[in-house]
Amino acid sequence: MALALAASTATAAIYWGQGSLGAANLDGSEPNFEYLKTGLVPGNAGATCGVAVTPTYLYWSGALGLGRVNLEGPAAPATILPSPGMQCGISADPTNLYWANRESGELVRSKLEGHGLEIGLVTGLDHPCATAVGGGHLYWVDFRSVGRSNLDGSEPQRSFLATAPGGCGIAVDSNYVYWSTLTPDNHGAIGRARLDGSERNSAFITGLPGHVGSVAVDASHVYWTEWHEGMVYSTIGRAGIDGSGANGSWITTNSFDLGGIAVDARPTPVPLPLPSRAIHFGQLRHNLRTGVATLDVSVPARGDLSVTSPQLGWKVLKGNPPPYLQGSFRWRLKVWPGKTGKVAKRLRTQLRNKGKAAVTLTISYNEERQLPLTVSKRISLWKTQPHVRHR
After folding, report:
1. For residues 14-26, b (16+ Cβ closer than 10 Å) or e, as one string?
2. Which of 231, 208, 230 is nearest to 222 (CA)?
3. Which is nearest to 10 in space by CA: 25, 29, 23, 21?
4. How confident is the model at residue 5 (pLDDT cuts 50, 70, 90)?
5. Helix runs in the chain, H state only
6. What is the CATH number of domain 280-382?
7. CA 277, CA 335: separation in Å to the nearest integer?
8. What pLDDT does 355 receive?
9. Beta-strand relationship, 324-325 and 328-337
10. Tens digits of residue pLDDT in 196-255
């Protein structure tokens, strides 16, 4: 379910679909299972069932349409083509996107920006679930076979490779087409054939304990997703471009079912400068003896919370972990005048003379793996005096 790039070097980043988009370095190190939280993109909730990458954009397909994010920045993930159907197995060439519609049994094409929609590029397929482009042709997998057509959908060969795929994975490089299949004893395997259909080998990679889902390829390796009966998590496998050294558990993910895999000719996944999600303020309490204010702060995920207002003392009582209530982590922030500086002196003087001091509280929240979010809130510090009565 991916665009497979014939990379000019052996360095690349790898991406996969799950509840969010995951990413890792080419050697499998530093996997990030929430590289892009697709559920936060407006109009894009739902499972991911396809991933593709171009030199500029990372694309994904799912139940509610197609989304993309600019890998060269600024990162502004968006739904480029909303859809009520299950759009799966997305792939791309320099001009167009291609994907399969399982429900209608057809292939669809659009421009990379999501416009110029061409429905019914190829029709009459049996639940197609993956596409790939290469060698001037569009390839696909359905429940019956591997098919091929021209890029505009003309001259379709619905049984180009008359083999029961046994999975939803197809990829191409400059020489071969690769697809997911099953061995006679119901184990996962990957087949391979020349782009013209010759030299077909349904057992190119075998001995995999699980079932192969999506497939991707670069200049040096073949990659695939694999799910295992009775296991909680799915895995990502890798083998040499000649099929050697197959490792079905190259990366162990935190998802039961993966939807799509793609490789990118970059040394590492590009960091996505996405803002942290909004925080919310709750109850404000006052210690009338010490002048300390305590403010409840709710955040959507664990991260770092800090006060950047000058010359204020502060402390975050995080807990271990902080309580998770109504979809948020609730931290307690304590604030008081600092010990040094003009601002701190002014606040302490106001508390001493008036029993009250107003401050602008500036808070920086850094959700894990996201950019910091800075917000401000006006609050008051209160302190009693023997001769002053406050409401």
Report:
1. bbbbbbbbbbbbb
2. 208
3. 25
4. very low
5. 342-354
6. 2.60.40
7. 23
8. 92
9. antiparallel
10. 999 999 999 998 988 999 999 999 999 999 988 776 688 999 999 999 999 999 999 878
H or E stretch including 172?
strand 170-172
List, in order, residues 6 or more apart from 169 with CB less than 8 Å away: 1, 130, 141, 178, 179, 180, 190, 212, 213, 214, 215, 224, 225, 261
CATH of 13-264 among 3.90.230.10, 2.60.40.10, 1.25.40.10, 2.120.10.30: 2.120.10.30
Strand partners, 208: 188
3-state secondary structure of 27: coil
Residues of the chain with CATH 2.60.40: 280-382
What tokens does 215 get? 């497939």
Residues of the chain with CATH 2.120.10.30: 13-264
Q: And the tokens for 39? A: 């559920």
Per-residue pLDDT reduced to its tens digit, 159-196: 999 876 677 899 999 999 999 998 888 889 999 999 99
